[in-house]
Each structure stands twice: as structure tokens, then as C-alpha cells.
Amino acid sequence: DHYGKRMSKEEACKALNLDADKDYMLFFGLVRAYKGLDLLLDAMGKIHAKMPNLRLLIAGEFYDQEEIYRKQIADNGLTDKVIIRNEFIPDADLRLYFGAANLIVQPYKTATQSGVTQIAFHFEKPMLVTDVGGLAEIVKHGKSGYVCQPNPQSIADCLLDFCKNKTDFTESLMEEKKKFSWERMTESIKELYTKTLEK
Questions:
Q1: Which pLDDT value is given to residue 27?
Q2: What is the percent of the chain where pLDDT is above 70?
Q3: 156 — phi, psi (to 5°)?
Q4: Are 108 and 129 in contact (CB under 8 A)?
Q5: Strand order in the sheet with 103-106
Q6: pTM of the full predicted structure?
Q7: How far apart are CA 27 and CA 24, in angstroms?
Q8: Are 173 and 126 a contacting pair, CB within 8 Å?
Q9: Are 36 and 130 spatial neighbours (Cβ–Cβ below 8 Å)?
Q10: Which of 49, 99, 130, 169 is least buried, going by the fewest C-beta atoms within 10 A?
Q11: Beta strand 54-59 with 145-148: parallel, antiparallel or unpaired?
């Protein structure tokens, strides 16, 4: 909860020089092979003609060769659909990127946990995650977003559902994020301590 207050999409897009009328997916953080950006780009390639308003915002430093992804973007006909900010994003700017996003995408091929999900909960943004590692334990399908399989078709199906139905996950996200609050953590520690004393 130290990343600041949630911004309106209009404010955030203005600050980032983005068109607020577009629907943005945010792929945030270091770009590494296991994070599945290639799966996401192939998924977009399948549906972008049906979803002309959909855009992908990639914000973070590339630890893989950026040229490989740019070629994939071009091959999928996505040159005007993908915005790349290949740079370190300071904590102070997180509220801009998450504020501009309609959906946070984590199409990981492997994972344990991810700090990005906690930031998304803080800003009450729905997520698309793949069913790998512990991601599906944190993001509940249909409540805080989508859980799909780590392949382009499954990702594409969830993206289509999100864009077509415009589901508002805000109320569910507000409820779900309480599980990760400092208050909940301290209560759990106190409960554990009390049980230990009782033994």
C-alpha cells in the first residue's frame, strides 16, 4: 500500500501520453522468457481484428532481446497495437501505469508468486494470470480476474471475454485484497501467538 492512491484512467493516460479511449492491458516488470510475453503476443495476434480498441502496454526493462519481441509484434500485425516502455519504472510512477490499465496481464510459463499481483490488488485492477505456480491461489477466476492455461488460445479466449463483457471486478477486488492487508497479517500473527500460548 505504499505506491500511492489509485488514479483515474484519464489522469494516468494524460500523464503517459496515451489515448484514454483505448483498452489497455499492462504487462509490467522485467521482461524475461518465463513471463510468457511471447504467448501474449500470439494470443493478441488471434483476436486483434475482433478487438480493434485493445492495446498492450509493456512497461519494464527487457532482459531478453527486445528485437525478438518486436519481430513477433510485426509478424502478428500488432505494430500499432503495442506500446513499449523499455526502461526502469520507479515506484512513484507505478500509479500511472496501473491507473491507465484496464487489465493486468501475467501470462507466465512458470512462477511461484508475483509482486505484480499484489500491486494490482492495491490499485483494484483485474488480472489475467496463467495457472502456474501459486498465481491461481491468489487470483480467483471470475472474482479478481481470469485464470487461463499458459498457451495463446486460452489467453485469447479470456481476453475476448474481458473485452466483450466489460465485467466490473471492482467490488470483488476490494473484498479479495483485504486478505493481503497489514491488518489481516497482524491478526494472523496474534492468532498464531495465542494458540502457541494455549499449548
A1: 98
A2: 92
A3: -60, -40
A4: yes
A5: 82-85, 54-59, 23-28, 103-106, 127-130, 145-148
A6: 0.87
A7: 10
A8: yes
A9: yes
A10: 49
A11: unpaired
pLDDT at 195: 76
Question: CA distances (Å), 52 to each of 22, 128, 167, in order?
Answer: 9, 19, 18
HEC profile for the chain? CCCCCCCCHHHHHHHHCCCCCCEEEEEECCECHHHCHHHHHHHHHHHCCCCCCEEEEEECCECCCHHHHHHHHHHCCCCCCEEEECCCCCHHHHHHHHHHCCEEEECCCCCCCCHHHHHHHHCCCCEEEECCCCHHHHCCECCCEEEECCCHHHHHHHHHHHHHHCCCCHHHHHHHHHHHCHHHHHHHHHHHHHHHHHC
pLDDT in tens, 94-112: 999 999 999 999 999 997 6
All cell numbers assigned to 112: 511461484
State how far the alpha carbon of 115 is from the alpha carbons of 2, 106, 110, 134, in Å.
13, 11, 14, 12
